[in-house]
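For the sake of transparency, this paper describes our internal protein records without simplification. Because each token names a local backbone shape, the row as a whole describes the fold. One such record is reproduced below, unchanged from the form in which we store it.
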Amino acid sequence: MGSRSEVAQQSEKPQRAPTLANVAERAGVAISTASRALSNPGRVNAVTRGRIEKVAAELGYSPNWQARALTSGKVGAIAVLVSDVTNPFYFGIIRGTQRQLKASGYSQLLIDTEESDQNEDDLLHRLRSSFDGVILAASRLSDRALAKLADELPLVAVNRQTRGVPSVFIDTPSGVVQALEHLVSLGHRDIAYVSGPATSWSNESRWRALVKAASARGATMHRLGPFSPRLHAGAAAADAVLNTGATAAIAFNDLLAIGMLQHLAARGVRVPEQLSIVGCDDIFGADFCNPPLTTLTAPVEQAGRLAVTMLVAQLDGGSAPGQRQASVLPTYLTVRSSTGPAAEKEI
């Protein structure tokens, strides 16, 4: 019989970490099935996946991501690029991508490009070894640069439509036409568009949609800007709108619109009695600013989830014939108190 010190030494020996083979054996499945259940849950039926996940939790098993990278060539991470991480519009996209990536067995690498196409391109190439694929939320790259990038690595673009690039498009051009129709119904015929960044693809598509719709409805559109899509830019934007004599304005995003409301209040301009304001995105706070903001509401979190689903399909073996390469999500106008009947102009 061993001494007490020998028994103590044996009990202090570290236990071996559970392996994938241990999980598979206890769950009664093949190792390949256990691997798929833990790394790509959508490819294993719910009952089997649940049993494997339960066993993994009981054993305290966690995947060895470094080993997976060596055997599969993947690092288990997806880069999600946003143009301004402080903009509440991106909160829903970040939440949607993170939840769907977790369910698909990937971690999220969040990158803020600071509204710069140069930063976007540089960061993607510099960090290439750190991710398996990319989700670009409101990319600032040109169509040509984006198409070239799509040939180099797996990606999905959100809020963008470029030939040959898988995309999830939030249909704000149709949304701003709804906003225009709402304003025209209130008697507005002189309307300003407060534009966002010059490199924003959605900014240009909205303007084209507004010009066409205004012409068909007998309204005049003024294009102002470009303005930074941030709260502080609302003051300059509001002054620019007042200088046009327009009775209503459609802003590129809610941050600009809310900044305009604040500045107009400081100047004693009553909204909507003297000027109606429409935003875009329906961010947190849009419904309790003063006055509550009429704005476009979009399924932003759904866009993030769908982008991940499309990207994971690419990574799991490429796009099959007939597989969805583009998806369009509708937007709708949420009418609140920042819009009202057009004020009569003084003669």
About this structure: Residues 6-14 have pLDDT under 50 and may be disordered. The chain has three domains: 19-54, 74-170+300-331, 172-298.
